[in-house]
Structures
1.
Amino acid sequence: MLNEFLKEHRTVEELKKEIAALTATVKEQASQIQKVSAEARGRGGGKVDPDLVARDDEGRPYSVRYEAVNAMLLNEFLKEHSTVQEQQKEIDALKAQLKEQAALIQKVSARVEASNPHCKRSSSTISKTAEPNKAAAFAGSNSAVDAPTM
């Protein structure tokens, strides 16, 4: 009996050592998590979605739900992508307006040249392929010439 008791006692002692080692490991991991979260808050990362953090019974974070992080990142990407698409549509509309304005400036310049024979502007000043900002610069630089009404 004493022999069996010593065997069991040794087993209990080994279990106590294993539990102590596991407890030390858990405490070390918890302190590492707290350090990382403190560093993240210091870098402006303090706004953490609570749904992404798994917490223990005492409310301390012990893990990150990575599958939820992936879903969140995908949602953020899709939002940004739709914003970029909307901006591209707006840019395309503005480009079209700019082309229309350049064509209108070209027509007005041609009318001014045709109606005022003393105006010796060459047609190369504003070419049909000129950039719109060049046409706008020409129109703004000649304040003595008023555009005819249409």
2.
Amino acid sequence: METIQIIIQEESEKMFKWLESRVLWGALLILAGLAFLLQNIIGFPIGGIFWGVIFGIAGLVFLSVYISNRQHWWALIPAGVMFTLAIVAGLDQFISGGGVGGIFFLGLGLTFALIALLPTSQGRMRWAWIPAGVLIFMGMVVFAATENIFGFLWPIALILVGVFFVFRALIR
């Protein structure tokens, strides 16, 4: 048991050693300063694109943790969240209203659906279908609400439920 803990500790120290690099953090600060300076000079909102790239890189880091060892399936969750945040940050300046909120929930739901689909050493993670379904449903509701689709969906849903009840009564 102790040897497993030592191995895990050594792997995590190697994995996050790059966070201690002063050069990395200095370069990121320089990149951020240049991005925001360009935003003020040319007037193009670079902030969303900048954060999209940062979140995308973070997603790649977590994805590499999973790819290097398939037993670390948990790394897919922060990877999916980071990729979703990258998309939301990048699209926020182009999509008005709450549409990005729907995209956010859909991205999180697809992350859990991916966890449910990919095989692990313990078998398939069937439990992940529950948060996947809930989050995808929430994403569709938020997206539908922001696009004023509810005015059409609610009456159609009532009609379909009514048809179901009539059809079920006639079969018996």
